[in-house]
């Protein structure tokens, strides 16, 4: 197979505005326990915090046994976002990112909340995968740490706990485990009772989760264990207030004493310690059980707390987006290498798609972000051939949707996967109709442009072919080609494509003008 050198270069040259020094940025972290808002100015490679807010929403507590979010939990979430909204009034949506984590990943009806929240904020909400959450947490924590060396970063959230080993700003290992202070409170402290037995049950469950990563993490090793976010910050504050550890540090001995103090409280309603905020008290024992298991599994003697977590990581990641440093480009480069992309064909399809897009961009109101994803889909559309030529569009879509792609949110992977799935044969109506209603129009438009670009390069030419004239009238497309001889393969392909579109409920009208006639009319 050809080496993907040209394609990798093309990926880095994909369309999009580079914004190296945005003035005002904002991130909202829709966590399973808390929602956080961070507004900051970015200057000289540093964030200058303008506003920082956090509220305990306990979204994960609103999930029932069927994975459905209750209306009460959604109301708490929307009320919180309504209080965040005034801080976002002067921030363009291009400089705001709203990310959802474990509870929204798990909720079967998360789209209901997302639709209502997006209408309120006027911004898109991105559900991020566990390892992407871990990567962003590491990015935020790494910027808060001046020291070099290999670090273990631990972040205990409401529904999941992230573990990252990294050096400088590069993670070496990323993992997200399904254990959090809210979900463990529900599972092991259901009636509020705190006992040695319940604490140990929670710890054993956490140790079982940790068994999957313990050996490879210990083998990779680290010099500096660091904790971020609420549970670890609260544990450090309680230990410092009791004189059981230096400020900002958790020790093995101090953690053991804290564990005993919690058991003596006997009930979640009676957890009241200096340094512990009231709104965290009920989920604190479960968080300490998870933290105790982490110390046990990794043989830790101490861990220090560091500011900088998911929301800071989101802002730093936003600064690098749509630039050569965009982490999404690295993920696509990896796929191109792994699956042996035919770079010449990918480049030709991308060039053709760009020309087609430019002809209908205004009529279809296609923005830079959408153009970027069409561009990327052109380079990724054949990756499924590494599995099998038969149904390779389905294989490629599966790879794009289910791979861990750093930098991509779940909606972004879903868009890329849909475009690859839809680029040939029958238009996938079922998959298209399963998309959120707000995305259906833009996604089918991009897919139809990709289909035409692939079709026009069906013969796999040495260079991009001459692109016909394309016009958009509403959702209907009118393609005008020129021909100097009898209808051939291209005409047959276009006729078939028109039938595919008709069957899907769209219109593609193909008109062929003879070259001699076209020349006389000029």
Automatic annotation (TrEMBL):
Membrane topology, as annotated: Peripheral membrane protein
Alphabetized SUPFAM superfamilies for the sequence: Actin-like ATPase domain, HD-domain/PDEase-like
Biological process per Gene Ontology, one example term: polyphosphate catabolic process
Keyword flag Cell membrane: yes
Top-level enzyme category: hydrolase
Catalytic activity: [phosphate](n) + H2O = [phosphate](n-1) + phosphate + H(+)
Residues annotated as domain Ppx/GppA phosphatase N-terminal: 39-320
Protein location: Cell membrane
Domain Ppx/GppA phosphatase C-terminal: from-to ranges: 328-497
One cellular-component annotation, GO: plasma membrane
Name of protein: Exopolyphosphatase
């Amino acid at each position: 197979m050809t080496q993907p050198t040209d394609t990798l270069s093309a990926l880095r040259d994909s369309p999009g505005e580079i914004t190296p020094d945005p003035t005002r940025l904002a991130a909202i972290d829709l966590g399973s326990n808390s929602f956080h808002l961070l507004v900051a100015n970015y200057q000289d490679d540093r964030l200058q915090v303008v506003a920082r807010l956090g509220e305990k929403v306990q979204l994960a507590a609103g999930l029932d046994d069927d994975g459905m979010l209750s209306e009460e939990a959604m109301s708490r979430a929307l009320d919180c976002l309504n209080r965040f909204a005034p801080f976002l009034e002067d921030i363009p949506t291009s400089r705001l990112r709203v990310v959802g984590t474990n509870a929204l990943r798990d909720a079967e009806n998360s789209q209901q909340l997302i639709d209502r929240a997006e209408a309120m904020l006027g911004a898109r909400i991105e559900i991020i995968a566990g390892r992407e959450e871990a990567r962003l947490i590491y990015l935020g924590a790494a910027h808060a740490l001046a020291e070099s060396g290999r670090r273990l970063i631990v972040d205990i959230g409401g529904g999941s706990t992230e573990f990252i080993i990294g050096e400088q700003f590069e993670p070496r290992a990323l993992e997200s485990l399904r254990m959090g202070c809210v979900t463990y409170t529900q599972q092991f402290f259901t009636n509020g009772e705190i006992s040695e037995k319940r604490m140990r049950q929670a710890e054993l469950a956490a140790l079982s989760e940790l068994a999957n990563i313990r050996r490879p993490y210990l083998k990779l090793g680290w010099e500096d264990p660091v904790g971020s976010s609420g549970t670890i910050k609260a544990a450090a504050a309680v230990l410092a207030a009791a004189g059981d550890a230096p400020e900002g540090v958790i020790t093995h001995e101090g953690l053991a004493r804290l564990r005993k103090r919690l058991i003596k409280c006997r009930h979640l309603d009676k957890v009241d310690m200096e340094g512990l905020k009231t709104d965290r008290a009920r989920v604190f024992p479960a968080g300490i059980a998870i933290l105790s298991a982490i110390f046990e599994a990794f043989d830790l003697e101490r861990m220090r707390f560091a500011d900088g977590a998911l929301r800071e990581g989101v802002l730093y990641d936003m600064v690098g987006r749509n630039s050569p440093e965009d982490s999404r480009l690295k993920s696509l480069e990896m796929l191109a290498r792994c699956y042996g992309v035919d770079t010449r064909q990918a480049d030709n399809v991308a060039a053709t798609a760009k020309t087609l897009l430019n002809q209908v961009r205004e009529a279809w109101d296609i923005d830079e972000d959408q153009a970027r994803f069409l561009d990327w889909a052109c380079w990724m559309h054949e990756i499924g051939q590494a599995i099998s030529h038969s149904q390779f569009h389905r294989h490629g879509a599966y790879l794009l949707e289910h791979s861990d792609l750093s930098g991509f949110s779940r909606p972004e992977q879903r868009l890329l996967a849909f475009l690859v799935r839809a680029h040939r044969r029958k238009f996938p109506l079922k998959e298209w109709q399963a998309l959120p209603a707000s995305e259906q129009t833009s996604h089918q438009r991009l897919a139809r442009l990709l289909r035409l670009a692939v079709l026009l390069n069906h013969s796999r030419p040495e260079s991009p072919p001459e692109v016909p004239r394309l016009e958009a009238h509403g959702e209907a497309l009118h393609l005008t080609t020129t021909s100097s001889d009898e209808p051939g393969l291209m005409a047959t392909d276009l006729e078939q494509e028109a039938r595919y579109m008709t069957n899907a409920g769209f219109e593609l009208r193909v008109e062929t003008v003879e070259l001699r006639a076209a020349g006389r009319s000029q």
